[in-house]
Every structure is written in structure tokens, then in C-alpha cells.
Amino acid sequence: MPPMVIPVRSSVDFNAFVDLPFRLHAASPQWTPDLRAETIKLLTPGRHPFWQTARRELFLALRKGLPVGRIAAIVDEKYNNHAGEACGAFGFFECERDEVAAHALLDAARQWLRGQGMSFMRGPLNPSTNHTCGLLVHGFDLPPTIMMPWNPAFYPELLESWHLRKEQDLLAYLIERKRLILPPHLKAEVARLKAEARFSCRVSGKNTLQQDIATMLELYRLSWAKNWGFSPLSPGEAESLVKELSTVLDPEFFVLFFHANKPAAGMVALPDMAPLLRRLKGRLGLSAPWHWWRTRPQTRAGYRIILFGILEEYRLMGLPLLLLDFLLEKARQHPDFQWVEGSWVLEDNVAVDELIEDFSGRLTKRYRLYRRDLD
User: Fold this and answer.
1) What pLDDT tens digit does each residue of the chain (375 aa) get?
2) Residue 302 burial (C-beta neighbours within 10 Å; 0-12, 13-18, 19+)
3) The domain defined by 4-172 carries CATH number 3.40.50.300
4) CB atoms < 10 A from the CB of 15, how many?
5) Cα(95)–Cα(61) distance, rounded to whole angstroms?
6) Positions of CATH 3.40.630.30 in the chain
């Protein structure tokens, strides 16, 4: 029997939407909840700048009055104008192992997106590629790193049984300290590039951090604009991201490269705060400092490369090598460092995929974005 699917209208329903994954995944040690307050902000038009150029409808699936699933249907006008598409996104999908409920939620999202004039749906996007996105399809036994999603192994079955099909895979690579051995030909190439000294570089610092993040976001915009799925940040989104990154970023793992004193490339690796988030269970409280202290060895051991951008005119001048070499040299200087995850990387970005593999990276997780035409 199909569940009742309702649009979220009341504060009670909204709180049920936010709280559902805490019940569904309570027994899953890999699940890493965002802070509940941040999720509420992200979902609320008027509180998060994403919604200045986007709109959404939230749906809950109920059985006997209790939530068993949720989904968001999203129209991102800024993305559609940039890409020249009529894409309707779905995201924030959560569901019990209930194919009928999952299909009912997807049907509701499809119907709403059709009504908005969209021609196809893509997801999961939570709510865009500038936030968490993709459905985990490989690596279920591994916990996610900071700002990456996790879902149970049966979720792909729920989506694919509704005839959603793969559109793009996003890859996560693990580079471990114990495997940091460069092939001789790459060592020689890095040495040659350093000797040529065509580029200068510097790490960020407290006095320049916010301006450096703004510079990095502009490099990201220019270098990623032609990539599949790229969604430009609005000024408000960029400002919000600057503030967000400033609270967790380690300036030593944030580097900018320059050519003739002009920014040419940059990379940001964040400390992996996911172990702390798993202990906080979605809420800051009086015990938060204690949890921070208990997880400090873990957060100092792991990092995630969250931003990586090289202007097109410099990509064939060795900058990808210099960026990764800088990160690994910096990592070697920190005895607590054990690993860094490069995520996410487009599956069809073969040049970057192969470069990370040359730097001893191992493919450990795969996230999938699905598509279905709105017939």
C-alpha cells in the first residue's frame, strides 16, 4: 500500500523532515550528521543565500502518521541559466527500505518539477554541486570525510528501480602517508619545474585568510566553469562560504600559486572534522569542547582536498604536479598527518584521476548522480 506523501507546510513537518535521518541511521557508525542548525539554515529560503535564485518543495512520506522518507524538489535558476538547461534537481533524499515509499516520493518530486517547466531531473543534489551531492554506490563501509555524504547500500536500488540512470560518477581518492612514494619520472619532473621557477607560491595566514579564500573561489569559478555540473556561486553564497571555511580551515594546507604576481592556481585541504561531527550527533552543547578534544588526534591525522583550481592557460605548465607536491611536502612536515582524501573528482576528468593515482592515490569511494527525463 502506498504511503501518504505530503508537502512540508508546518513547523512540525519541517522538523520531522530535518530529524528523519537521525532515526533512520542511528545504528550506522559511518553516518555523519551535519549540525542540525546548519541543515535548518540550508533548507530555509531567506536564511541561506542559495535560495535567492532557487526555489524548492519539500515532501514527507508517511505511514500511519510516521515519516518513512523525505525528498526535496529544487529548481536552481542560476545553474540553469549558466548551463542552458531546464534541470530540476532532487535532493535530501532519505528513506526506509521501502521501494513503494521511495517511488512515491520521487513521483511527487517529478510532478512538482514538471509543474515548474523542467525537462529532466538530476540528483541527489543537496541542493547543488557546491554542497553535498551524489549517492554513495561504492565504499559503504568507510565513513565520509567532511562535507561528503553517506547512505546505506540499498539506496541505489531504490533510485534505480524508479528508472533513474547514471549520468555522472564522482570519485574519492585516498592518499596515505605510508604510500607517499613518487615514481622516478615524476620526481624528476617536479625537480625540473621547481628549478624553472616560473611560479611562486605562498600559504595563507590569519591576516590574509578571508581575502585568500575569495581569491580561491574566483580561481575555482574560472577554472571549473566549463566542467560538467558546475554551478556558479552568487556573491551571497561566496560570502557565506568564506565565513564557513574560515572557521575550520588550516592556513598551512591552503596554498596559492602565482605567475607574474597574478593568481594562477590554488588548493584547499580541510582538516577532517567528520569524527567530531559523529560524536556531536547534530547538536552543539556543553560537551562539545570535550568531544573536540577527544577527536583531535583524528582531525589532525586526516584532510580532504575540497578546492582545487588551475586557470586553463597554466594547466599544461606543470601546475597540477606542483600543487600536489606542495601538499605532500607540507604533509611530511606534520608528524600527525596520516592521509588526505581528494574528493570529489569527475569520473571523466581523466587527467586529474591519473595524476592522483600517480601520487599513490587509491579510489576508495564512488558517488553517483542520476538523471531521468520528465516525460
Assistant:
1) 889 999 999 999 999 999 999 999 999 999 999 999 999 999 999 999 999 999 999 999 999 999 999 999 999 999 999 999 999 999 999 999 999 999 999 999 999 999 999 999 999 999 999 999 999 999 999 999 999 999 999 999 999 999 999 999 999 999 998 887 778 888 899 999 999 999 999 999 888 988 999 999 999 999 999 999 999 999 899 888 888 888 888 888 999 999 999 999 999 999 999 999 999 999 998 999 999 999 999 999 999 999 999 999 998 898 988 998 898 788 788 889 999 999 999 999 988 898 899 888 999 999 999 999 998
2) buried
3) no
4) 13
5) 9
6) 4-172, 174-367
Question: Number of H helices and number of E strands within the chain?
Answer: 12, 15
Separation CA 129–CA 123 (nearest Å): 10
Which grid coordinates belong to 76? 536552481
Q: Going by C-beta distance under 8 Å and a sequence separation of 6 or more, which residues neighbour residue 78?
A: 53, 54, 231, 232, 234
Return the CATH fold of 174-367: Aminopeptidase (3.40.630)
- Write the Ramachandran bin of 62: left for phi over 0, alpha for psi from -120 to 50, otherwise beta: beta
Residue 276: CB atoms within 10 Å = 21
- Whole-Å CA distances, 349 to 86, 138, 331, 356: 24, 19, 25, 11
Say if residues 338 and 176 touch (Cβ distance below 8 Å): yes
* Closest residue by Cα to residue 143 from 31, 24, 304: 31
pTM above 0.85, yes or no: yes
